[in-house]
Amino acid sequence: MSRPVLLVCVLLVLIITSQFEWRQQLVSDVDAIATPRESQKQQRIQQREENIKEKIILSQEKNIQSLNDLVRSLKEQLRQCRGNNETSSGTFSS
């Protein structure tokens, strides 16, 4: 082989191998960039889930409070009815 042909072959080999290295670096760089994006996306999703859970809990607490108020009101009505019954049954027995 002549020297110029050998030099061209060596240059081609160098160019090809350097391109493979660049591609590997680019792929690793893209992976490094994608990983934080994915973790940020996961964090946003988890935050949304936590917000939804918190809203559900607050809604349930409001419902429980409303039910407690209704129970309190019904107990008071029951006491009044019992009081009225005792009063009316006391007047009948006299």
From TrEMBL:
Q: Which UniProt keywords apply?
A: Coiled coil, Signal
Q: Which residues form a coiled coil?
A: 57-84
Signal peptide bounds: 1-20
* Top-level lineage group: Eukaryota
What's the protein name? Peptidyl-prolyl cis-trans isomerase G
Taxonomic classification: Eukaryota, Viridiplantae, Streptophyta, Embryophyta, Tracheophyta
